[in-house]
């Protein structure tokens, strides 16, 4: 009882061993992460189409709930780029950005996603996320990065533009280019250039100055904070809002409010598919980060419990003015590098952000929106990586097709269509491949008991005996394929009297496949050909026995292919003595 | 060139060897099949909601086109019960039965289905049909049989009733029961009882009279002809139409007319999914019959060419006043049993039916509809077979779930929903199973070089070495499962220094799985654990080499698990000499 309780509350495990050293490390990590998270949270709220404070709120309670329910020691939960983009896409058909309806729908989306995640965790359905293959995710993230960057260009230009596919976005942007605000453009481009330099140029510079390791890394991550301060100061000092530069404006000074998501059935029906996709993508990203960090310290995470942790975080976001959240890559790495030892570091970060929400919000009144857009663009362009196309092309055309379809459909038809198409296509291609498994006709390698493909090796065969090896589990999608192969082979060659199916690579068999075997057996029998099986694996043999197939089988089942071939040969040479037959049919 | 031409025109192969003996056999078979087909064709037209002559037309040109393009020597193509039901279901939302629009939609459905079949044949996509698993088909046919029988009860009662799910049908029937026409009911029940007796009682009687073999079988199949004659006579002699008995009425005396299917895009969009499902179901049924008959004579059929043959038949049906057709079980068996040797028997049957359409149609003016309904009911009840439920329950719960869902959804929501749900569920269950493959930790059987599951056998293990055997191909849906298993195992036991992945059951690997292996390798490396592979199959090894995985691998690849274990053991005992290492890492 106690143990199963601890399974659902990992805090009971690490909390018991908590001490002063861990506390110190956690607090230091929390301070660094807090400073880094302030601009990031504001920016991702902008990306999701929500007011900036929603980004702070989405990082406070969710992070605390994850600390209680999550299993990763270093994962930092909050708004992330791809999920924020998916949130904006999901809400775009439901309400206009800036309206109350939009904010409520965001809460509902987070709540729904939280419930889906918790349910998947409780029913141990985390495996569903496995259907997002690596190449599909890589393609999706790359395409999302492009979409996100494109969606922020309007803020850099200081114009309004809309659209959830790349083409729509570009068309609308081009229409609005003449209205570009030159000061906004200057701030946007300046901030973008500075942030790129921080990423690419600052670290080598610090190294040359003798600064290495964690401190240099942290300084690099603080680039956005510097830009936020600098451009906010400029906007305040020169009153740029008067000159048409869009600024963040008044942000309420408050702890996260208690909010109620809508439970309207219509809204929930509309949000169900997006919430499911957001949950899956968020979970996959988060688990992959958590597992990478856990491996570095030989710790383990429990994917099913992670679902519960992330679900709790999202439900928390829904009740406290947030929007869908998940474990973020950059923030978690900073947290880990800064020395976080336990999820308590997350709780301290939450306290830091709560103080920021209470005290610092007046300071960001003059923060230009273009600055936030610049931080988003620089952050997401690191997600864009077309090397997956080359890699998958070299590895297999099926994987390449799935990646390409995901990228193109995400760019042209939006995130939901893109990820669904990628998953659908990878499943179809997998089924296609396994529906045409490799079937090799094998013969005996002279002087050995080994059997190899007759097309690749010099082997001994018998004109009356055909041995086929199926390199796949036999199931409905490939059972008829095997039937066809066998009938073809036997119809082509009237001398054949024995067909031996070498089952060494057959890990499983389903009812369709069993019925195909029965059909093969019966039809071969009508052709006066006997069917034998050899090297049948335990689980397959169990099934065949349960279905009484062995009593129908016209031939025998042999422990080894060598015995099977010897037996069939003996049969052709003339009847075996009973003792001989006994010995062969082990 | 010539050979590939012959592939698409099987007639060139058998036509060349045609002789007088084959001609005699084919003509005899054709006469028997023609007599049997007349009532069957009329009945299935009724089932599809079309005028009776459509059933004759659908058997004439299609049968001739199949004779040219098909590969089965004995298959008889025409309207069949399940496809006729699916036709009625597909057209029910498009036009009212008896209208011109309905008949045109039926032509379009046949044409579309023909195009789909030919396209699948040309692009060799016959494998798609494999996703209809045996249990799903069995469940679907059983449920369809019930639906068909239920849909005919109204004709037996002489009332009108409608509905495409069982519940709708029964509710509407109950509402109309008070309007039952007693004479119609008497004819319907009498015909049904007689036909049942023919099936169950006549054959034993004939046997007792010394009549056996083909002749007895043919007499039994002619039961419907007798009933048609008898009830037509009764209806004529007693002028039953005047007493409210529905009769077939005037049927045009004509050869199949030339007809044009509609090419309205709206109609085609509506018919696309039903046409696809009808094509699949028709193809699967037809190929299964053709293969059964071909096996009896050790002949072969080519499933991809069968698609072209059936496609041509359906296009023929669309152009000559028919509706969707496929290879029927009972008619093909009669054809085969009656001695048909080549597809020419089909052509002669077509001539016989053409003569019937020209000459015999006035004779069926007085044929009561209830008689046709009785022939349908008796024919389809032989399709109903719930034993698949018991069989699948015993074999595997996944197969059982797929069958049960197919039956229930077909009965409650109609044929299209039923077959789609069955296919979808079997694919999902298959993916689920393969996403949680069997992973066994293995150890060496003392005194041998064999490795077996440590949970099932007394084996030797090494505290520093973990050997895991994955009993499945590694692909996106199960790659992360393996990752989790390995991390769990290694995190649980800090003594582990080597992980050996025994790949003997891994038939294939995709890019996701490769990336998982890379991730496993990298993370184990961080934990100071080396990853080795053993018994990697050729195709998997090719892929690993192409992706340069072997150069990243922290451990080695071994030809046999025994070598791998020896090597890992040596590593723990102390460094191997270079020569030793060389020898082990074959």
Overall pLDDT metric of chain A: 86
Q: What are the low-pLDDT stretches of chain A, counting only 5+ consecutive residues below 50?
A: 574-586
Biggest chain contact: A-B, 71 and 71 residues
SS-based class of chain A: mainly alpha
Q: What profile does the largest beta sheet of chain A have?
A: 6 strands, mixed
How are strands sequenced across the largest beta sheet of chain A?
4-3-5-6-7-8
Q: Report the strand count of chain A.
A: 8
Work out the strand percent of chain A.
Answer: 5-15%
Give the oligomeric state: homodimer
Global outline of chain A: elongated
Distance between the termini of chain A: 49 Å
Radius of gyration of chain A: 31 Å
Helical content band of chain A: 55-70%
**Alpha plus pi helix count of chain A:** 25
Question: Care to describe what's here?
Answer:
- 2 copies of one chain form a homodimer.
- Chain A is mainly alpha-helical.
- Chain A is built from 25 helices and 8 strands.
- In chain A, helix 6 (100-122) packs across helix 12 (265-296), helix 7 (134-157) runs parallel beside helix 18 and helix 9 runs antiparallel to helix 11.
């Amino acid at each position: 009882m106690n143990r199963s309780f601890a399974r659902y509350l990992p805090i009971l495990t690490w909390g018991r061993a908590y001490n002063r050293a861990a506390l110190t490390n956690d607090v230091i990590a929390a301070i660094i992460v807090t400073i880094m998270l302030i601009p990031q949270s504001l920016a991702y709220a902008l990306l999701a189409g929500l007011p900036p404070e929603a980004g702070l709120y989405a990082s406070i309670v969710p992070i605390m709930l994850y600390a209680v329910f999550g299993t990763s020691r270093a994962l930092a939960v909050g708004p992330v780029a791809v999920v924020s983009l998916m949130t904006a896409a999901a809400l775009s058909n439901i309400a206009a950005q800036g309206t109350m309806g939009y904010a409520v729908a965001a809460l509902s989306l987070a709540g729904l996603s939280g419930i889906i995640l918790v349910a998947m965790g409780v029913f141990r359905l985390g495996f569903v996320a496995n259907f997002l293959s690596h190449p599909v995710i890589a393609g999706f993230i790359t395409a999302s990065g492009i979409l996100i960057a494109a969606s922020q260009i309007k803020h850099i230009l200081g114009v309004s533009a809309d659209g959830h596919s790349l083409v729509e976005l570009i068309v609308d942007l081009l229409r609005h280019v003449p209205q570009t605000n030159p000061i906004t453009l200057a701030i946007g481009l300046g901030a973008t250039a500075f942030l790129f330099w921080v990423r690419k140029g600052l670290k080598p510079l610090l190294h040359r100055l003798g600064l290495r390791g964690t401190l240099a890394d942290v300084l690099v991550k603080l680039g956005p904070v510097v830009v936020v301060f600098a451009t906010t100061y400029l906007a305040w000092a020169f009153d740029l809002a008067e000159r048409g530069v869009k600024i963040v404006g008044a942000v309420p000074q408050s702890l996260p409010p208690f909010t109620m998501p809508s439970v309207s059935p219509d809204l929930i029906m509309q949000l169900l598919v997006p919430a499911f996709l957001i949950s899956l993508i968020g979970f996959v990203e988060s688990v992959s980060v958590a597992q990478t960090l856990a491996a570095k310290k030989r710790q383990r995470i429990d994917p099913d419990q992670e679902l519960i942790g992330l679900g709790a975080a999202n439900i928390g976001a829904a009740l406290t003015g947030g929007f869908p959240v998940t474990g973020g890559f950059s923030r978690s790495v900073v947290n880990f590098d800064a020395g976080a030892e336990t999820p308590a570091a997350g709780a301290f970060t939450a306290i830091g952000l709560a103080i920021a929400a209470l005290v610092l919000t007046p300071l960001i009144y003059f923060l230009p929106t273009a600055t936030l857009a610049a931080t988003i663009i620089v952050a997401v362009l690191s997600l864009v990586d077309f090397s997956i196309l080359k890699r998958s092309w070299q590895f297999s055309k099926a994987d390449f097709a799935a990646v390409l379809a995901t990228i193109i459909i995400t760019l042209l038809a939006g995130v939901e269509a893109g990820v669904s198409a990628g998953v659908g296509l990878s499943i179809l291609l997998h089924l296609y491949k396994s529906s045409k498994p490799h079937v090799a006709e094998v013969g005996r390698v002279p002087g050995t008991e080994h059997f190899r493909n007759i097309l690749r090796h010099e082997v001994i065969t018998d004109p009356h005996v055909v041995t086929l090896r199926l390199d796949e589990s036999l199931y409905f999608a490939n059972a008829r394929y095997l039937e066809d192969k066998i009938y073809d082979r036997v119809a082509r060659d009237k001398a054949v009297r024995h067909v031996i199916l070498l089952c060494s690579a057959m890990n499983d068999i389903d009812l369709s496949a069993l019925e195909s075997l029965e059909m093969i057996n019966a039809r071969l029998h009508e052709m006066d050909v006997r069917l034998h099986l050899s090297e049948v694996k335990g689980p397959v043999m169990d099934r065949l026995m349960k279905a009484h197939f062995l009593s129908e089988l016209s031939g025998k089942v042999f422990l080894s292919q060598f015995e099977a071939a010897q037996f069939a040969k003996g049969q052709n040479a003339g009847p075996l003595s009973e003792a001989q037959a006994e010995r062969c049919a082990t």
